[in-house]
Amino acid sequence: MTIVQEAKNIILQNTLDFGIEQIPFMESVGRVLKETIVADRDFPPFNRVAMDGIAINYIRFKNGQQSFNIEGIQPAGSKQLSMQSSENCIEVMTGAVLPNNCDTVIRYEDVTIKNGIATITVNSINDKQNIHTKGKDKQQGDLLIKENIVISPAEIGVIATVGKSTIKVAKQPKVMIVSTGDELVDVNEIPLDFQIRRSNVYTLVSLLGKLNIPSETAHITDNKTVLKEKIASYLQEYDVLLFSGAVSKGKFDFLPEVLAELDVEKLFHKVAQRPGKPFWFGISDALNMSGQDVYQDKGNNKAIVFAFPGNPVSTFVNCLVYFYAWYYKSVNIKQHEETAILASDIVFKPNLTYFLQVKLSYRFGHLTATPIKGNGSGDLASLVEADGFIEIPKTEQIEFKSGAVFPVIRYK
Q1: DSSP secondary structure string, 12-81?
Q2: What is the pLDDT of residues 130-163, one digit of tens each?
Q3: pTM exceeds 0.85
Q4: Can you give the residue ranges of every domain in the chain?
Q5: How many CB atoms lie within 10 A of CB 105?
Q6: How many C-beta neighbours within 10 Å does residue 254 have?
Q7: Which of 275, 276, 241, 238 is nearest to 258 (CA)?
Q8: Taking Cα atoms as reference points, which of 75, 100, 76 lies closest to residue 88?
Q9: How far apart are the C-alpha atoms of 377 and 364, rounded to whole Å?
């Protein structure tokens, strides 16, 4: 059996480059930026008024002048005015360009205005106060956003302000999610006593949705001929196939056999972990029997296959641990790592890596993990009670004490 770290290493050695596409910037939230964003001019691009009030020449106030004749008004978005006399002032609005021959702004709250004269009512003001000076934030040509970051609403405003109506992002993989099994019926059907509704496929769709990866879904019954025919087609059309079920030792678990017959190279099958031990991973070349590339619409000559065991908790944790890591490396994003403190003692006897479901909380500023008592990898409802998993390493040790620190994989 492959150990967890070895499985991770194999997966990370088989990432794919999906290329780059240019999209409207307002469609880019959650996508991976593939260009640097630089300032097209100084930020702010002019000496910007930061308060509604009056603009004066500071030296006049310093020499004792308190009252100023109002020459005019400088609104935001209007051409810059020039004050004609240093003994006067100009009313200014927040966001406006500072008028020429002015260097200080006094807010309206600190002046009284009567008969066209503004009188300062405070005893102290500072030279150049309430002015956001040109280039103070960033200067033309400065780096604003580095590439290989996930775009958030914060980046959208910056992208807009430099006039980038379209931006380059990493293309997303083309993904097909496949469930198998005669016992499964669709969501809108009433299952018979011996059937259950399909759920894993929709869980996987949602997990990929968190990465902004669109996906398609299919269901194939336990018929080897149909399974082989469908998968052969999917391998030609998609970058990634995600399976849920049919990889264990059951009489109708045809998937490993079918993949072998389709020349999908098995890189490992079975990982020393709980849950999710029967996990199968492999890669297919995109050449048909005549040697012609049949993946022209994919932009890739490989297809990656993640075949997860069908129990819902197994499917869930394998996607988080393995597919997420594979995707992040494929698009050159550094995956965030964190740890949590085990909140209570646990006993785990098998010499396997244990992905333990936990409830996460903060205590005195530290992330703590309280184990959730589920009923094994088939207990779908337990995923709702937990916030994530902690990864307890494969070891001969069977007791793990409160206070021990482990990596955490959170999904809430």
Answers
A1: HTT-----EEEEEGGG-TTSBB-S-EE-SS-BSSS-EE-SSEEEE-HHHHHTT--EEEEEEEE-TTSPPP
A2: 999 999 999 999 999 999 999 999 999 999 999 9
A3: yes
A4: 8-19+171-330, 21-36+145-170, 48-132, 338-410
A5: 27
A6: 22
A7: 241
A8: 100
A9: 32
